[in-house]
Amino acid sequence: MKEEYKLPIYLQGKLEESDTTHLIAELDGRKVISCIPSPEDVYNAVLRLKDVSRTLEDRYTIRELAEILDGARDAFFGTDRYADTVSILEITTGRSREVVKEDLNKLEEFMDKHYLQAMIKDAEGGYRGIFDRPVSKIMDLVYKRRKPLGVVFHHLAGNSPMVTTSVVIGVLTKNANLVKTGSGDPATSVYLADAINDVDEKVGETIAVFYWPATIDGELNEIYYRIFPETPAEVLIDGVACWGGETSINTIKKLANASGVKIIEHGPKYSIDIMFDVPAEDSIYRNLLRDSIVSHDQNACISTRVIFVKGDGKKVAENIARYFEKIKEEYPNTSSTVGEVIGKRIVYLKREGAKIYTPPKNSPDWTVVYLPKNTELTLNDIDACMNRFLVVKEIESLDDISEFIRRNNLERYMQVAGIYPDTYLSNPEVTERLWNLGFSKLSKIGEHQIFYPGASHDDVVPLLEFTRYVTADKHNLVTKTLKRLYGLVSRNR
């Protein structure tokens, strides 16, 4: 295992080094250093991306790009690129190797051509080829087409490699892609772009990946002002996909709004689980912990923060504690510190009605807190749930969840609600109520991270958000008749 990892810049087909470097993270004597571009480097990259921004549209169909991305998956996973990425993320996130691999596995599944093709088919909405050419059905009054935005700036968070799906979607929708990685994951996008270039150099030319510190001496990095000039007419990017916390996203939104650039926003969000009964199946607890807690150590928007239980919440808390202890051998927790965890536990030891479950010898590996019906849930409880710290809240009904979300004005922050038993996913009374509370995706418990083709991601279908919907009016005998039938034109025209 290397003592030092120096991350290059990926620039339209080449891995390059710069004279300026930045220490991103250091752990147990191992370091991750990244090459840093100058503002002029990034501006020149955007100019070149603008020049090639239509090449994918002219050269490939969307399904051909799915094949190329599937090939890039093979050129990344199971190779030295993957091994270095795992080692780098161990250092930058502080998570165990096993947890990092579990997180990266989700990206591997996402890039499978069969999944991408199913996602394409769903987004086409019955109009096969709409991402490649104008299409129309006999009774339509217009020709329909999905066009790429052009140059998309991906401002990625560092909490999970899954944010790299933003780049995958950018390529799939035939955009040119400028990528700024996060300090938590500065590696995945760099090495994945290099893998894409191995499979097809023409696609590789449409990607540039950099890391730079967001601020220097407390001031926003000058690079942002080269991407978003004061004069809107000088802006060269056509869309920005921003991921991360509220401060980061608001900064990018402010710049993008001033420039008139389309914003695709992801985060910050909260996710929860709701049990309308106490699960008896062992697999429910294992899948919940593996999917929604362990793989990100609750540092992702789709991670479970609180489990609401209509029934014996104490029994659920005990079962989760038992499975936490089982799963820690397979997925060690290396990101929790004793001081941080003990401090949070002390708060609940003083909380009336709360019961705390911890590992033997009070280690910081995991913590489960049970709150009975008569103990109020607060925002502090939600915020405490990070790095395998979980609150189980007993409720009377969905009214309790509604009251908590609305009292704290959380509707716009809700993302996924996992449901048990999953029969409630087909209950309109439950689904409509949860959608009205702001949740964009309802899933089976243990499937927060599984986005079936057609599933909502932050209220949108990503393939559609990364494209423009354009039309051309049709004029023939059929449409002339239809227009008159619909009263769209007078009979004299």
Strand order of the largest sheet: 3-2-9-8-7-12-13
- By CATH, the architecture of the largest domain is named 3-Layer(aba) Sandwich
Strand content: 15-25%
Report the mean per-residue pLDDT as an integer: 93
- CATH uppermost class of the largest domain: Alpha Beta
How far is it from the N-terminal to the C-terminal residue, by CA?
77 Å
The number of domains? 2
Write down the CATH topology of the largest domain: Aldehyde Dehydrogenase, Chain A, domain 1
Largest sheet: 7 strands, mixed
- The count of helical stretches stands at 19
Radius of gyration: 24 Å
**Low confidence ranges:** none
What is the CATH superfamily of the largest domain?
A: Aldehyde Dehydrogenase, Chain A, domain 1
Per DSSP E runs of 2 or more residues, the count of β-strands stands at 21
Shape: globular
Structural class determined from secondary elements: alpha/beta
Summarize the structure.
The chain is of the alpha/beta class and 493 residues long.
Show the helix and strand layout.
Elements: E1 4-7, E2 9-11, E3 14-16, E4 21-27, E5 30-35, H1 39-52, H2 55-59, H3 62-76, H4 80-93, H5 97-110, H6 113-124, E6 142-148, E7 151-155, H7 165-172, E8 176-180, H8 188-199, H9 201-204, E9 207-210, E10 215-216, E11 219-220, H10 222-227, E12 239-243, H11 246-259, E13 262-266, E14 270-275, H12 282-294, E15 304-310, H13 313-327, H14 338-349, E16 355-357, E17 367-371, H15 379-384, E18 389-395, H16 398-407, E19 414-420, H17 428-436, E20 441-444, H18 462-465, E21 467-473, H19 477-485
Parallel strand pairs: 1-5, 7-8, 7-12, 8-9, 12-13, 14-15, 14-19, 15-18, 17-18, 19-20
Antiparallel strand pairs: 2-3, 2-9, 4-5, 6-21, 10-11, 16-17
Helix pairs in contact: 3-6, 3-8, 4-5, 12-13
